[in-house]
Structure formats: C-alpha cells, structure tokens
Amino acid sequence: MGSPSSLERMERIYRCAPENLKDWIGRNITWGETDQSSTAYVVLTPQGYHIGFNPSFVDEIPDEELTGLWMHEIQHIVRGDLFVKPEDMKPSQTLHDLATEYVINERLLQHGLPIPAVGVSRQTLQPFIPDGLEMPEPIMGVSWIAHWLDKNIKKFPVFVVDYELADPFLRSKHVETLLDLPPGAGRDVVGLRATQKPSTLDITPLARLAARIHTWAKGLHDQPARTWRREHVASPYLRGYDYVPTARIVLAFDASGSMHEYVGTYWALANELRAMGAEVETWAWADKAAPWLPGTEMPDVGGGTQLVPLLNSFPNARCAIVILTDGMISDEGAAPRAARETLSRIIWALVPDGVAPFPGDDRVELTWKA
User: Which of 16, 90, 243, 278 has the fewest beta carbons closer than 10 A?
Assistant: First the structure.
C-alpha cells in the first residue's frame, strides 16, 4: 500500500486531534504539513498559532501517538513556552528546552496518553543520568529541572526542539489563550477526558490563579520590543518598535515552619507565571528577605515573620509582590506603612485558613497543594 495523499493525511491528522478540543483548535490553531521539523513544531505568526506536521513521521506513528503529538504541541501553546525570552532560559537555552520537553511528555504519560518513542521522557533521559539518581518528578517545573540537569547530566541526548519563540509584541494578544479552554481542561493535562486515568495532578486552579495574578501585574512595567507592524501596517518583517506591557512579579515565600509543606506549590506557581510570559523573581522571607534561585536550597532568612524587610527590598520598583503566606506576621504594626510607601502592588496568595494581615491590591485563595 502506497503513502497516503496529502488530503488523506490531513484528514487523519484532524481525526486524531483531541475530540473535546476540536472547537478550541478550530478557533485558535491552523495546521499543515512541513519539512521544517523531523516530527512536528508549533509557531506563532501574526495570524495566530500554526502547527506543522512532518508527513513521513505522521505516516509512521499509530493514531494514539498522533493524538499524543497533538497534545504535546498544544501544551507548548497553553504553557506559554513560545513567549519565554532566551535570556530567561537558565542555565542555558538547551537545558531549558530539554526540561520543557521532559515535563510535557512525562505529564502526558502520567495521564495515560502515549507519546512517540522519540520523545524526551524519563526512559530516554535515564541513561544520561549518573547511576543511583532518578529523574525528578515533572511537577518540580521546567526551571528547577533545567538546573538539576545542569548539575547531573553526563552528556546531552539528541532531541528535537519543536516550538519557535514568538516575537514579544504578540504576547499580549495571545497570553489569555488559556482562559479560552473548555471547562475542566487542566493546564498540563489539557483536554484529557474524565473517563481516562483520574488526574491527581490537575493544576487548573493553580493555572487560573496564576492568570489572575498575571492580569493584576500587567502594565506596571514596559519593555521595548520589536514588532510585526510599522506605521500601523502589518508586515512579515520585524522592523517596527513599540513598548509592550510586561508583568514583573516578585513571588515571595513565607519561610516560617508552618509553610514548608507548600514549597512544591510555590515553585509550581512560579513555573505557571513564567509560562505566561511574566518576569518572575523568586524570594524567601522571614525576618529578612533574600533571592531564592530555582534548584537551590532555601536561603537562610532567619526566624520570625516580618514583612517590612521584604517590602523594603523593592522601594522604587514597579512590580507586583505576590506574598505566599498564612498571614501570621510579627510586624503587623509597621508593615502596612511600608506597603503604602512602595510603588508595587501587594497581592496576597493565602493558603487555606490564611488571613491577610492588612488589605492589599488583591487577594487570592491558594487551594491547590503539590
């Protein structure tokens, strides 16, 4: 039997798309054949998202893996991977890309959806890891896993980068794509039916919380960016310039003993916000405040829980300070004044039974726990 025609192949590709996402796909994505990738890739154009499928690769894989390939590319869209800036890909773009592929594929595998055998996964990466070590769980997030790989990987495997970074100007138009998803479609397991393996890691509440925080933070900080337009005329070339509102967020973790069970949630929230294109600085605070880099031990910030040292760390910054806490602070008298004097917005991210010590610009309930 010969190879299918292009039309037959495209019909099969559409038939294997996740059934309950087909309407969403029709509104947000175009797709076609490509020889620009050995598997598939997703790119953002001025007209919207486009997924290209390699004809030879598609012809070789069964229908269920083709569905997994659809899900993988859709994940790059809803996670915001196309909007990550190269300078934010730490410790290197290669490690960031490798960790991204690993997180997406492992989450799909955990929920019973097959992926093509060439995909980056625990099975394909384990031979490159020293004996006695196990690959981290994907819930730790891309940034944490990228730093872990930097410390532990012996050599780089061959893998395909299947998404293209988008021009920053297009970010604001498409960052809310997540909110257009069907009800119940989780951020990292988007479109999986309830009849499949039950989700114990469905982070839809966390994703929606991150989207709300991102909305509050937008507009506080502008960055110059090349655009697709010049003098209000659409152009296929990056030749215009504009200022794009970006979200600079300080995500502060309450390092008191009662909060240690939420460390995983903290890093998952940081990962969600970065996936939406936000500039995220991670800090820990107690009676002093210090940056907390992904993949490192929590810094020594002393005992007690005082907000003033944290707020005073950003006296002239225009950012959103998102404070993950149970609200039990020891300087409730001085903290409100420090908050009034800062140029930043205060957003309380409260754990169950947490109480905001004083009013902020917004208040969100953190009901999801890693």
Answer: 243
